[in-house]
Amino acid sequence: MPEVTVDNVRATLERLAGDADMIWRRGIANAFSRLDRRFRSHDGFKVGARIILERAFNGHGRWNYYYGEQKDALLDIERAFLVLDGGTVSSSYSPAIGAIEASRRNIFDPTQSECETEYFRVRIFKNGNAHLWFRRDDLVEKVNRILANYYGEVIGDARTQEADPLKNRKTTPAKAFGFFPTPAAAADKLLERVPLLQERDKPRLTILEPSAGTGNLARRCVQRVDDHVDRYDTAEKLRATYRFDNAVDCVELQPHLADGLRAEAIYRAVYAQDFLTLTPGTTGLYDRVVMNPPFDLERDIDHVTHALDFLKPDGMLVAIMSAGTEYRETRKATAFRALMERMKAGWDDLPPGSFAAAGTYVNTRILRVWKDGRRFY
């Protein structure tokens, strides 16, 4: 903690004032994404679509506090709409909550009800779900613009007009080469359920990192015995059980980054080219593919589907992907979700702001999939 002085307090207040716009945008993003996952990406929500608040009400017809934060999120969003509409928020401002509760004042059982306010139309069903429609398309458009500015359109989710199938891949490099180094916490989360130690009596483990950048993922795949020594496992015991000679190959389009990877002298091969131009005939097949691909214009889907061709029949792929992959309605995104469902892939969210250190607030997810279609739990 810095010393509490007049200068330090003044500097802190000036910094907060300078960051006010970013704090506002972050608040909008967090509030709307709590209400509906599609707002985790600025291109995920379409004007006119409805939002379903699952199990918002309990069996007695009252707010269900056990299952979520829908009430608080709805209150935050209503106040955000008021500000975007030019109004001033007071601590008592909550017409939507008031209208909902008034419509259910004498309800003690699962019962349908409906109400409207200036900004919302809400219908509550017997199963406890609430369906929400926004009544002001102009305010939704403003929110989408704020989210686009907050999440950014480089790594994240630039609006995608293309309706291309999975095999129609981008042939030009991503903007700024899609280069956003994987922060340490995100890299650790991605790899925490990936088997990277090979048993002593089995062949050497082969691993590919198709967008290696500065090696934040590839470096973790090398696996050194000292990284696993603890009070239960000595180096001698570990060496008797596992191999520590993983063959890690990297692909990196930017020549200076590829040179940096080679200079580390820990990788079997470094290919200085666009991954989408590389074929398994050149590299061979791999036991693991670990990747953080470029995201703009659905390039993450292009790279992941291409990377599947590099897996051995029992190989495993893990990737960081755009949150928009979950709900975009393009042909490519729809086909990709269907493919992952057939392959029994597993998905996890990375925490919001996971890539803030890399210069973007885009939301991301982790994909884990086995080539042979075994379910990933």
Percent in strands: 15-25%
The number of helical elements comes to 12
Alpha carbon gyration radius: 24 Å
CATH architectural name of the largest domain: 3-Layer(aba) Sandwich
Task: Give the helix level as a range of percent.
Answer: 25-40%
Question: Which residues form runs of ≥5 with pLDDT under 50?
Answer: 154-164
CATH topology of the largest domain: Rossmann fold
Order of helices and strands: HHEHHEEEHHEEHHEEHEHEHEHEE
Shape descriptor: elongated
Q: Return the average pLDDT rounded to an integer.
A: 84
The class by helix and strand makeup works out as alpha/beta
Oligomer: single chain
**Strand tally:** 13
How would you summarize this macromolecular structure in one to three sentences?
With about 375 residues, the chain is of the alpha/beta class.
Structure in words:
The protein is of the alpha/beta class. It has two domains: 6-151, no CATH class; 175-370, Vaccinia Virus protein VP39 (Rossmann fold, 3-Layer(aba) Sandwich). The chain has helices at residues 6-18, 20-35, 70-84, 95-103, 137-151, 184-191, 218-221, 235-241, 255-264, 280-283, 299-308, 331-342; strands at residues 51-53, 113-116, 120-124, 130-134, 198-199, 206-209, 242-243, 247-251, 269-271, 286-291, 311-322, 346-349, 364-370. The protein has a seven-stranded mixed sheet, sandwiched between helices. Strands 1-4-3-2 form a four-stranded antiparallel sheet, with helices on one face. It has a two-stranded antiparallel sheet with strand order 5-7. Helix 9 links the parallel strand 8 (247-251) and strand 9 (269-271). The longest helix is centred in the N-terminal third of the chain and has 16 residues, at 20-35. The chain is elongated, with a radius of gyration of 24 Å. The chain starts with 5 loop residues before the first helix and ends in a 7-residue tail after the last strand. Mean pLDDT is 84; it is low at 154-164.
